[in-house]
Design brief:
The protein contains twelve helices and four strands; from the N terminus they run αααααββααααββααα. By secondary structure, it is mainly α. Strands 1-4 form a two-stranded parallel sheet. It is globular, with a radius of gyration of 19 Å. The termini are far apart. The model has no long low-confidence stretch (mean pLDDT 84).
């Protein structure tokens, strides 16, 4: 009897599950080890590392300059480096320029600062549409309507270098501490699909 042909899939999560099952079946990995890694990045790391780095950059001009010029070293200073995050670049959003990150080849993502990538980030529609139609994609998929005079720069992350966004600091947060600022910074704002506003600061008041 011939073996059944494998079912091809382009869904990243389906492929990840298939690879995981194969590794476990061949004894190259264990369920417990995989669960431990996932838990580490979902619960212990997540996007709070990136949020702390952004908050520090907002309150420390020297660190901000360092982060933008040599992100890998600046983040390593805080202990935020390692698997999927050895080479990192950070781009600053300003009133004139809005950066957004994407991985057109697969789903490369800066795990040490942003945690595991969201499902939509890995999906082919996001990867294709954000590159071709960034303004429309931000508006229709993420309810982020940017003025026409704001330049949108799509940063294509890769296996060699990962990127994250330094969001604009919201107005009305001048009196907040670094710890308080970190609480209002979201993962999506560090991907570039969300813009922090006064509502985020109001939620902490």
């Amino acid at each position: 009897m011939s073996e059944p042909h494998p079912v091809e899939t382009t869904d990243p999560e389906d492929r990840a599950r298939a690879i995981q099952s194969l590794l476990i079946e061949k004894g190259l990995a264990s369920t417990d080890a995989i669960d431990e890694i996932v838990s580490k990045y979902e619960e212990d790391i997540g996007s709070m590392n990136g949020a702390r780095a952004v908050a520090k950059a907002w309150t420390d001009p020297e660190y901000k300059e360092w982060l933008l010029s040599d992100a890998s070293t600046a983040l390593d200073e805080l202990g935020y480096t390692g698997l999927e995050g050895v080479d990192l670049g950070v781009y600053e959003n300003t009133p004139e320029v809005h950066n957004v990150i994407v991985c057109t080849l697969c789903s490369c993502f800066p795990w040490p600062t942003l945690g595991l990538p969201p499902t939509w980030y890995k999906a082919p529609p996001y990867r294709a549409k954000m590159v071709k139609y960034p303004r429309r994609t931000l508006r229709e998929e993420f309810d982020l309507d940017l003025d026409d005079d704001i330049e949108i720069k799509v940063r294509d992350t890769s296996a060699e270098v990962r990127y994250m966004v330094l969001p604009q600091r919201p107005a009305g947060t001048e009196g907040m501490s670094e710890e308080e600022l970190a609480e209002l910074i979201t993962r999506d704002s560090m991907i570039g699909v969300e813009r922090l506003g006064e509502k985020h600061a109001d939620e902490l008041r």
